[in-house]
Amino acid sequence: MQYYAQEHPEKDNFLFLYKQRITSPSSMAGEVLLVHETANQVKDPRRAWRYDPGRRRAFRTPTVAYDAPALASDGLSTIDNFDMFSGSPDKYNWELKGKKELFVPYNAYHLHSDQLSYDDIVRPGHINQEIARYELHRVWVVEATLKETKDNIYSRRTFYLDEDSWQALLVDHYDEQGELWRVAEAHALNYYEVPVLWTTLDVIHDLKAKRYIAFGLDNQESMYDFSKSMNYRQFTSSALRREGR
Length: 245
Hints:
With 245 residues, this protein is mainly beta. It has one domain (2-244): outer membrane lipoprotein receptor (LolB), chain A (Clam), CATH 2.50.20. It has two helices and 14 strands, in the order ββββββαββββββββα. A seven-stranded antiparallel sheet has the order 6-9-10-11-12-13-14, with no helix packed on it. Strands 1-2-3-4-5 form a five-stranded antiparallel sheet, covered by helices on one side. The longest helix is centred in the last third of the chain and has 8 residues, at 237-244. The two termini are 18 Å apart.
């Protein structure tokens, strides 16, 4: 389960508040990640806390950044893979390569349907392609190349951004030898009640491991309530400890 809020007493360099709770499997149930996301993370790195149900305590964690393994991803995703890319961009040189036409995941309303179960979507090797939808779109191509003085498991990333919304729809990730390693897809649709173009499902394919991970499956859950009001007090380390108890 994931929660967001956009209220913070320190607003100058604040982006959003984020909380993630693991409900299953039972071996990980109860683990909670809390993040205070900043806009300029070179100036002020994101702040993060983790609640460990085994030790029944919350503690500050400095590793929620860059290519640290993402929580509950079984090694198939990094922190900066979240939402196709998150965190500070300072480890890469960025270049706008221009536009091209490309088949990308788009208008994924069927994939978002509450008439589907997770078993309808998740299949061996890849999600059910009879449910996924792709269409030809103009995209901006942005290339990020790792700086010589920096470290990251991805030496290069190529982003394909929707021309209309600037949502990253596809990202190619290259290893240290320059070989294509992981491919990320963001299956997007319009949430007209907000309005915003956002994703219903993010998928990362690991071509070496021949496995994939899917983030955001929501078909068997209550739909997002964009009108729900949440406040800063729900996103403090003290609140994290109270939830654990």
